[in-house]
Amino acid sequence: MICVNCITCTEIATTHSLSSVAGDAEAIYLAAFSAGGQVIKRWLLSGDAAVSRVRGIYLADGTYSDWADASKKKPSLALNQGLVDFAAKAAKDPAYRAVYTASSSPNGSLPTGAQTLESIREAVEATREAQDAKPRR
Fold first, then answer.
1. pLDDT digits (tens, 9 = 90+) for 57-113
2. Dihedral sign, CA of 14, 3, 66, 56?
3. Which DSSP state fits 108?
4. What single string gives the DSSP state of each residue in 41-67?
5. Angle CA(130)–CA(133)–CA(136) in degrees, nearest 5?
6. Which residues, 6 or more positions from 32, have their beta carbon under 8 angstroms from its beta carbon?
7. Cβ atoms of 64 and 36 closer than 8 Å
8. How far apart are CA 130 and CA 36, in angstroms?
9. What are the residues facing 29 on neighbouring strands?
10. Cβ count near 50 (within 10 Å)
11. With contact defined as beta carbons under 8 Å apart, do 126 and 77 qualify?
12. Which of the residues 35, 43, 52, 121 has the least number of beta carbons within 10 Å of its own beta carbon?
């Protein structure tokens, strides 16, 4: 357990690698609420070898992001790409589980969690369609 009294999620993700937190666990299951999702998102994109041992992710209202551009029509997937890739893997392989929830509560000038979750869902579907379109050897 990491105490977060005076530390941000970005600091946790950069000062505590997934490998150091998970140790030698063969199967890693990650869960976070709200801003804690930022830690998981950063770990998934970190290149840490332990990411390959992640078998499940549960994010409760933890998918928040910024806008993709100044038009504010679509949430950015920059930090959520790891969630997209993991959910696409989980959709194809029952050994993996991905559960992401979000609220539609206002988030200041940023997208709601529900708007970001919808963009993640769209990206997962596009990823799966692209994977299905590739010829099998």
1. 999 998 888 999 999 999 999 989 999 999 999 999 999 999 999 988 888 899 999
2. positive
3. T
4. HHHHTS--GGGGGEEEEEEES-----B
5. 120
6. 39, 40, 58, 59, 60, 62
7. no
8. 30
9. 56
10. 18
11. no
12. 52
DSSP letter at 99?
Answer: E
C-alpha gyration radius of the chain: 15
Q: Can you read off the two tokens belonging to residue 129?
A: 């369609």
How many Cβ atoms sit within 10 Å of the Cβ of residue 28?
19
State CA 77 to chain mean position distance: 10
Type of residue found at 75: P
Structure tokens at 126: 């596009």
* Structure-token pair, residue 31: 């869960």
Integer CA distances (angstroms), 106 to 31, 74, 102, in order: 23, 15, 11
Sequence-separated (6 or more) residues with CB below 8 Å from residue 49 = 19
* Band of residue 134 on the pLDDT scale cut at 50, 70, 90: confident
